[in-house]
């Protein structure tokens, strides 16, 4: 029996990671293979592959979006590896196992890149940025939920008394203060993990501390912190600095302390001073200009921006364009700008839910498999995971992607116009119920309008597309 082990991960560690793992398991088992899949998601490593499972495996499948650590590469050293971006795995699941021998290559742990296409998966600025975002997510989610709970406690009449001389703080104030720590440390942890993704542990502590420094506006004497722009610049700079620093040969006596003492010390000293005198103030000024622009742009321009962000979110359903718009909106949370992330909370619900509703309204334009998957797509789509819409888009790319993109753009414009705000990642359609999206009435109005438009566009465009396809086939016959 052919034995296979697999690893799945994605930048956010939420949807793709687990959906691809399930797809690989189901497909491999249907072919009679023994399969074990390790997921590296938002909850950490689950179903961790044992040394024995890896040793006995005939092939290793790596469906990854945020790369592998050096430890992972060592685990699979000299194994036959089949690799592909996690965002492509669902599209190619039916052919993934067709010719494993021809499509695999022997992995050498000494290589930085796993294969010809791996640069786009494990390397590149976007993958490093998404590694930082993935690490920051738990801070924002936990902090956002605590702030929402504290706010609801106050709304129900509980006191919001701060700590002061002779006064005890109230429970609502304590919970809110703990939640605020999530937003305070979100940016330093993002910068630290961007650097970590580039050059591993030696870069982590310096990047964390220097990014924290860049966001301490009182210490820097600036109007604001460097925000996510500072995290990006500092994380990338320290990451590449350490990457090349690690190649330095200091001789037998000092090489052993290079990684845990010399590199962190020198990096922290160099970038600490550089950030205090130059990078911090410069990035803080740039962040202030950008925030001022976003807050003061005319409504017409804001609507255009909302259309663009919404269209990008709906276009490739978890792909690079979607991730770019998501990263921009998410990164503004640390600066307490919540309306752009409000677009994310609305638009990412639309493609899978609309596809499901369209199958119920006009089942004749969908296949039996698409109709059978409709409830799953609808329920998963309610959690802002757009991936269930991918099979529908693959079956009819032009009409489905056009419908999703147009509906997403219009809904994004409406959402920003109504100033719907989302304070943290949550549970999708129920976010207003736990205080993460407001005003709740505008949120549900935008979702309703978006779904109505998306369903209408899907039925109209796909019906026309199928009619044209039938006419072409008739002419060819």
TrEMBL record:
GO terms for molecular function: transferase activity. The chain crosses the membrane at residues 136-158, 170-196, 226-245, 257-279, 299-317, 338-361, 373-394, 440-461. It comes from the Bacteria. It is found in: Cell inner membrane. Residues 4-102 form the PTS EIIB type-2 domain. Residues 125-465 form the PTS EIIC type-2 domain. The keyword tRNA processing does not apply. PROSITE patterns: PTS_EIIB_TYPE_2 (PS51099), PTS_EIIC_TYPE_2 (PS51104). InterPro entries: Bacterial_PTS_Sugar_Transport, PTS_EIIB-like_sf, PTS_EIIB_2, PTS_EIIB_2/3, PTS_EIIC, PTS_EIIC_2, PTS_IIB_fruc, PTS_IIC_fruc. Pfam families: PTS_EIIC, PTS_IIB. The keyword Endoplasmic reticulum does not apply. It is a multi-pass membrane protein. Its EC number is 2.7.1.202. It is an enzyme of class 2 (transferase). Keywords: Cell membrane, Kinase, Membrane, Phosphoprotein, Phosphotransferase system, Sugar transport, Transferase, Transmembrane, Transmembrane helix, Transport. This is PTS fructose-like transporter subunit IIBC. The lineage of its organism: Bacteria, Bacillati, Bacillota, Bacilli, Lactobacillales.
